[in-house]
Each structure stands twice: as C-alpha cells, then as structure tokens.
Amino acid sequence: TTVTTTGVHKFDRHQLSAAVTVGNSTDVLLADNFIRSGQGWGGIYASGERFTVEHNTVHTESVITNHAGIYVGGQDNHVRANTITADPGQGLRIDGARNIAEDNDITIYSVAPNWDIGRYSLDGIRVNDYYNGTTTQQVIRNNRITIYGTNSPYYERGEHYLNGILNVSNGPGNVFEGNVIRTIKVDPEVVVSGIMPGSKDEVVVWRNNTIISDQYGVLFGAYPKYSLNTRFESNRFVKGDTATADYAVLAA
C-alpha cells in the first residue's frame, strides 16, 4: 500500500493521528507499506498487543510532539527492519511493555521548532512514560540512526536538541544494545547527542552501542532532567570527523 497525505502543517497538539492508524487491536501485521505523511501527520500509529510493524518505508515532516515516523504502544509488539526519514521530524517512539525495536534505519535530516509545547528535543528513537514506570522491558537493539544537526530552512531558526536515542522512562528492564548512532553537527545552534539516558530509579542498560558524534556522545540532563542509575557496558565512542573543541563522550 502507498499512502500520501498533503495536509498543511498544524500548530495543534491535539492532532494526534497518523497517516495510518490502528489502535486497541491485537495480532496486526503492518508490512511493506510506503507512507509519505507530509507536514500535518505522523506516519504509522499502532497501539495494542502483538503487532508486527516491519519493512515499511516512512517519510515524515511533522514536528508535533506526538507525531513520529512510527509510534508503537502497548505490549508484546515487534518493530523491525523499517526505514524512517524525517525532514524535519522524529523517527520512532515506543511505549508499553515487552516491545522490541530492532534493525530499523532512521535518518533525521533537519530539526525545527517543536511548535506545540516549546523547543524541546526531537529524537531518532524515544522511549517514554514521563517517569510513571509503565514503559518496561523494552529492547531497542541493532538500529542504525543518523542525525544531522541542521535547522530546517522552512521554519524559524533556533536552538534545538537533536538526539539519537532518548529515554524518558522509569520502568524496569529497558535495554539499549547494539545500536549504531551517528550525529553530525551542521548548524552551531543545534545541539546533537548520541543518547540522553534518562531514568530516576530503575536501572537502564546501554551496552555494545557505537556512538559516532561531532558533539556529545552521552548528554545527561537536558529534556529528561534526570539521568540516574544508568549502566554503560562495552560501548564504543568515536569522535566525529568534524567535531570541534566542545566534543565530549559524557556531558551534562
């Protein structure tokens, strides 16, 4: 299936839908679709149990907080081998319990003001429950994320945070492993980081990831505010080819 939407950009937090929406369902397969969601929507919104979302190609241009190239919520869902591009926008958001996101290719080409709630972060992958502990046992593995710290020419320029992976969850058992993240700083006012680890109480494990960054490998604080009980195991940090003097593996 090919889906193309042409709606204009919406300055409205309440527009939460995506071009393809399947909610409160079980045993759903969303596969091999091509979706260009334009400025007004996210790409795929899938919420329920035992979803498989695989081999989709999604292009998005939305910067509303609740829009993403692919959003998956619920439990026992599998998101794999999708290709997501955002120009501007964000890639994958995943919430719930016992979900797996693996082997996805995500590229963010530019960033723009997050119009609905202010200029916070836009992310390649976001795991989120705002610290209420409901997003648990997420496995985020073997994804490839590339982000360009560029202000979109179609919007007002400004300071933005752009991250490879952002964790704003306090649920137990979340693991991020084997991901390859490349952050390329282009405009000086855009802050790029490989990960923002988040968490208040529960241990979050980051292992066997490779982060190639022109600015920060790991940025504590910022949008998540808290970054407690974070465990790093066998990660590889590489200074980017065009990194400047503010490069740091760990920054706060």
Portion of residues in beta strands equals: over 45%
Number of helices: 0
Q: What is the H-and-E element order?
A: EEEEEEEEEEEEEEEEEEEEEEEEEE
Strand elements, count: 26
How would you describe the overall organization of this protein?
The strands form 3 sheets. This protein has a 9-stranded parallel sheet with strand order 1-4-7-10-13-16-19-22-25, with no helix packed on it. The protein has no helices and 26 strands. Helix content is 0%, strand content 48%. The model has no long low-confidence stretch (mean pLDDT 91).
Question: What is the strand and helix layout of this fold?
Answer:
Blueprint: E1 2-4, E2 18-26, E3 29-31, E4 34-36, E5 42-49, E6 52-54, E7 57-60, E8 70-75, E9 78-80, E10 83-86, E11 92-94, E12 100-102, E13 105-108, E14 121-128, E15 139-141, E16 144-149, E17 160-168, E18 175-177, E19 180-185, E20 190-196, E21 204-207, E22 210-213, E23 216-219, E24 230-233, E25 236-239, E26 248-251
Parallel strand pairs: 1-4, 2-5, 3-6, 4-7, 5-8, 6-9, 7-10, 8-11, 9-12, 10-13, 11-14, 12-15, 13-16, 14-17, 15-18, 16-19, 17-20, 18-21, 19-22, 20-23, 21-24, 22-25, 23-26
